[in-house]
Write a structure and sequence with these properties.
heterodimer, A: 590 residues, D-amino Acid Aminotransferase, Chain A, domain 1, Glucose Oxidase, domain 1, B: 204 residues, Arc Repressor Mutant, subunit A, 2 domains, two-stranded antiparallel ribbon
């Protein structure tokens, strides 16, 4: 850490400043640099500057601004580029970064430093005039929305920066600065100012977070993945986030820039292509991902860019993963010694385990079943019933029904609650029907096509909301054999060892919580009431025992045995008990 | 403007089945007035009711559809209403994609996995987007409330849901059994479609 004119912290990895000083993002950049990883250089206006900014009535003090200019000069020197002009231009991103993450603050402005002249230089460097123009448009658009509060349509592919400027001016009566220094100063002021935004204040009030804190501002050099054949951008997972397979898994987009991979607008290539074309960058990337995984003790999702053969890491975070991958990665990481077994048990949520253990359609059944409709898989899961085409019929039906509608309105919500599964003719994965069925946990297939629902009325149906298929008939499901799921057998074994309570199929004299009026209907049960109901019992059973509160009550009441109800899975009950046991031990230590 | 009979049945249609209190809450109207209007609707065969819960009957639907054009003629003809509705649709697209991100997180290879809410940064990012859309929505709702003051109630209801989300009650983003942000927004959408006589258009 080097201080420039006392007011700005240069993040160069020579030390790792506290998050109370430079915020979470600033600390993360410094930390990655301190590990020797290639991260674009950055500077940070520390949280202290946010306080000064507000004390000065919402103004960046001259001294602080001079420090920013000196810091930017440092970035220029380090990279051999110049901010706001020249043949080799420097663009920067500006981000907020408080010590605790909170909504309501200005997040990011990218491509700061672009001007008409820089656009020309960028076009020459990349050989891609459209890219240079759209980068310029995106900057003007983002500045207009985040700094000036404009409400704009996304610029189209043929938009020009002048048109976007005009749109901002029309909407706000304010102009986007053409001077990059003026723009940079305005963005920094907006980040600091957003600490006092209505939303941020409301959030802090709700959570009792002090108003005296503040946010840091990170100004970081941007790198480009589209400067020719030896450039590109991608995402690397330190192990496969879908299967949990320990081999790294990645996506690579040659000549791609920034959001191109994440946004899904381009089709990325597998990582092997990078290995074939730029072995050195590929190997450094894999090494970096393994190091980051080891340091974090968790699967990492690393965004990276290769600029003219040089690897840059942009961001790392814990990877989002499928339930299958959650099980396998947790067990593998523990067996590799990266985490403790108790931690491995905590890494798998009961919901994830329930998904892994959910009965699947028998393959032989699927092979011979008639497909009645195909659409978008909107909410995963499998369910069967008789097709009904209006919500009233769904509500009045005695047996299991599948609700099929052209589209859904609020009137249909009661029908969706009553149905086992939902099918709609119109709409995609973001339709109201998709949102509601996911909230209710009802398997759904949407967008099966006009007029299809009438043909489903009165028929026996099976809806596969994971595959987006509606089958004729009530198809059989089969239980999952733990031996076929990598890691699952071991996880169950560890849960059994960690749980002080046994789970059995039958035990005499167990207290029935459902009969005692503590059945699990909606929402979390009351842990206190459950513990009260279990006082003095040696064994217990009930739907509420599948919840964390239920497991906690069993442990606190000293119940020795839990009796599994039909439909409850032994592994799921054991995992809850093991997790709550380790929480209990931790609470006691405190 | 519209009479209480129309309003009560309209509120019931927007709210799905409901009690007079729930319908009154949607309309920002007096509960006892709504109750007698709903009882009158039952007598006319336009609604069915049992144990204080009412539903619109098929005849009631037809009656509503026949009354809307006249009752909302002014609203439908007003370019300000159409313009506000265009803005509403834009926010609607953003919100629905945000609700989807809230429920299902993008993982790898274009796949999504259920959000188990263990990643505070991810959740806060989505809540932040909700806040930004909420602020856009306020402007649109102000415009609607100028055209029909009744619609102002949605701003209050959305505020309540958003406050709960900020307070960490995460079910209030898109929970289907409560007046979550999505539930209220969904009802507002239905309300506007009925007033304007438009068809629901779903994103592909």
């Amino acid at each position: 850490m080097t201080a420039v004119a006392d007011r700005v912290v240069v993040l160069d990895g020579s030390s790792v400043p506290d998050r109370e000083v430079v915020g979470n993002k600033g600390r993360s950049i410094a930390w990655m640099l301190s590990l020797g990883l290639p991260v674009p250089p950055a500077l940070c206006l520390p949280i202290e500057e946010c306080r000064r900014f507000h004390a000065a009535g919402g103004e960046l003090e001259d001294e602080a601004w001079r420090s920013v200019l000196a810091g930017v000069a440092g970035l220029e020197e380090k990279l051999g580029r110049s901010f706001g002009g020249g043949a080799n231009p420097l663009l920067v991103s500006v981000r907020s970064g408080a010590a605790v993450s909170m909504p309501g603050m200005m997040d990011t402005v990218l491509n700061l430093g672009i001007t008409d002249e820089v656009e020309e230089a960028l076009a020459a460097l990349s050989g891609d005039r459209d890219f240079a123009r759209s980068t310029h448009c995106r900057f003007v658009h983002q500045f207009g929305e985040t700094v000036l509060g404009a409400d704009l349509d996304e610029p189209g592919p043929d938009a020009t920066p002048a048109e976007v400027r005009e749109a901002v001016l029309r909407d706000t009566d304010e102009a986007v600065p053409t001077d990059p220094h003026e723009a940079l100063k305005a963005v920094i002021a907006t980040v600091f100012g957003s600490w006092s935004s209505r939303r941020a204040k409301a959030y802090r009030k709700h959570w009792g977070i002090s108003e005296d804190g503040g946010t840091a501002v990170i100004v970081q050099a941007m790198v480009f993945g589209n400067l020719g054949e030896d450039s590109g951008t991608g995402v690397l997972f330190s192990r496969n986030p879908l299967s949990g397979d320990p081999a790294p898994y990645g996506e690579w987009l040659p000549k791609g820039q920034g959001e191109d991979v994440v946004s899904g607008t381009h089709d990325p290539l597998p990582l092997e292509v990078l290995e074939g074309s730029m072995r050195g960058a590929h190997d450094r990337l894999i090494e970096a991902a393994k190091l980051l995984e080891h340091e974090h003790g968790d699967v990492q999702d690393v965004e990276f860019t290769v600029e003219r053969g040089e690897l840059w890491l942009l961001q790392t975070r814990s990877a989002k993963r499928s339930p299958l991958a959650a099980v396998r990665a947790a067990v593998d990481l523990a067996q590799e010694g990266a985490i403790e077994r108790a931690e491995a048990l905590r890494r798998v949520s009961a919901e994830q385990l329930a998904t892994v253990l959910a009965p699947k359609l028998a393959e032989a059944e699927v092979a011979k079943a008639e497909v009645l409709a195909r659409g978008v898989a909107a909410c995963p899961g499998v369910a069967s019933g008789i097709g009904v085409v209006d919500s009233e019929a769904a509500c009045k039906a005695d047996g299991d029904v599948v609700l099929a509608r052209p589209t859904t309105s609020p009137e249909d919500v009661s029908g969706m609650i009553a149905a086992r599964a939902v099918v709609t003719e119109r709409g995609g994965s973001t339709s109201h029907a998709a949102v509601v069925t996911r909230a209710l946990g009802r398997p759904s297939v949407v967008g099966v096509g006009e007029g299809v629902s009438d043909g489903l009325a009165g028929r026996e149906l099976t809806v596969d909301g994971s595959a987006g298929v509606v089958y004729a008939g009530i198809l059989l499901t089969e239980d999952v054999d733990p031996a076929t799921v990598p890691g699952l057998g071991t996880l169950i074994e560890w849960a059994r060892e960690a749980s002080p309570v046994a789970v059995v199929d039958e035990v005499p004299d167990s207290v029935d919580l459902d009969a005692a009026g503590a059945a699990l209907d909606e929402g979390a049960p009351d842990a206190g009431a459950l513990a009260e109901a279990l006082r003095g019992a040696t064994a217990a059973r009930g739907s509420a025992l599948a919840t964390a509160e239920g497991a906690r009550a069993v442990l606190e009441a000293g119940v020795g045995t839990v009796e599994r109800l039909p439909g409850q899975h032994e592994a799921a009950l054991l995992l809850r008990l093991a997790q709550e046991q380790s929480n209990l031990l931790e609470d006691k230590e405190r | 403007m519209t009479d209480t009979d129309l309003l009560a049945l309209h509120g019931l249609a927007v709210k799905k089945a409901g009690s007079p209190a729930a319908v009154a809450a949607v309309l920002g109207a007096d509960e006892s007035e709504i109750e007698s209007a709903l009882e009158a609707a039952v007598a006319e065969g336009r609604a069915a009711g049992a144990k204080g819960t009412f539903m619109v009957a098929p005849a009631g639907r037809e009656w509503l559809d026949s009354r809307y054009p006249e009752a909302y003629a002014e609203f439908r003809a007003d370019p300000a209403a159409s313009e506000a509705y265009e803005r509403f649709e834009r926010i609607n697209r953003e919100l629905l994609s945000l609700f989807t991100d809230w429920q299902m997180m993008p993982a790898a290879g274009g796949e999504r996995v259920p959000n188990d809410h263990s990643d505070a940064d991810y959740d806060n990012g989505v809540i932040d987007r909700l806040g930004a859309q909420h602020e856009r929505a306020e402007k649109v709702l102000d415009r609607f409330a100028e055209l029909d003051p009744r619609l102002g109630i949605y701003e209050t209801r959305l505020d309540e849901a958003y406050d709960r989300v900020l307070a960490g009650e995460i079910d209030w983003v898109s929970g289907a059994r409560i007046d979550s942000y999505h539930t209220v927004w969904f009802e507002l959408h239905e309300d506007l479609l009925r007033m304007l006589g438009r068809e629901r258009e779903e994103a592909p």
